[in-house]
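We emphasize that the prediction below concerns an isolated chain of 340 residues; any contacts that depend on oligomerization or on bound cofactors are therefore not represented. The input was used exactly as deposited, without trimming of termini.
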Amino acid sequence: VARRALGARVPPALVLGWHKAFTRRPRSLGAVGRLALPLLLIVVALSAWTTIDRFHSSPERMGLPTALSVRADASLGDRETRALLERDPRVTAVYPGVEVAALVPGQTATIALRGLGTRAEPYPFTLAEGRPARGPDEAVAGQGLLDLLHVRVGDWVRMTVGDQPQILHIVGRSIEPENAGRVISTSLDTLRANDPDLRPALYQLRLDSGADPAAVAERLTAAGRGHLDVHAVANPADGLSPLRAVVLGLIVVLALIGLIELLTAIGGTVREGERDLLALKAIGLTPRQITAVTVTATAGTALAAVLLAMALGLPLARWLIDAQGRSSGIGAGIARLPSP
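Result of the prediction step, given as a token string:
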């Protein structure tokens, strides 16, 4: 390769620098590996940082399409409540809903059964697999529920709400940050088919882009005159914000380790080049070209380490985020987000 490069009139400094960096395989692989390790960990740390940031910048992609949750007392009917909520100019959609505890065969713990939105105005579930629930008896489920029941998208599940059975067809896998993902969601119309007298117990509100949830909640509370209980939808990333300082500190430490390793590689290249200095001068290389040989050798080693770290770090980061997210029911969709 070196002979062909010289024959193609590639500058001798580049050829000699590449030759010095990669011809001694054990030493070259060791240098690349030592430099790639801190870079790989930096890639993983940056992926964790990006995942935490996505909860705040794009909550709708993390299973939080609505910003406010409202509960009305018994004095307000469904029509009056929806009219009151839709009157606010920053509210773009109101989704009535109900959440009940359900039992499934063979399990002692309860799961959460939600009825959100209607077939005319379906709730915008964030899906990681499958399709939205549009037809009768169709539902989407979190990863935690699929693992609990050992089912997958396309299966039918049977559960009991009180003394009434409910059979639902799982057509999609949703990102569910609550209840460890042990949630199955359908439309309010589907639940009303079994219980026509079912009344919405809560309302999920989607706001305009850039709207302040606190300001909207204050206006709705005042407009409700004590009949509305308005709360912001809890964001799981609120408790993870302190981890940003930890991730930042880890990135700084790893960057220092990588810098020290890079300086060590430069020093080793310079020491090895001292033995070849007279030979390089004898063949006509100038001091600037001799310096370029060292720079090229170091840059080639660093570039190989960066490519190796990216090739291994991004799949590793996706796998770690997906494994951690599956334990909390949200990882199936997070792992599909773009990496930094």
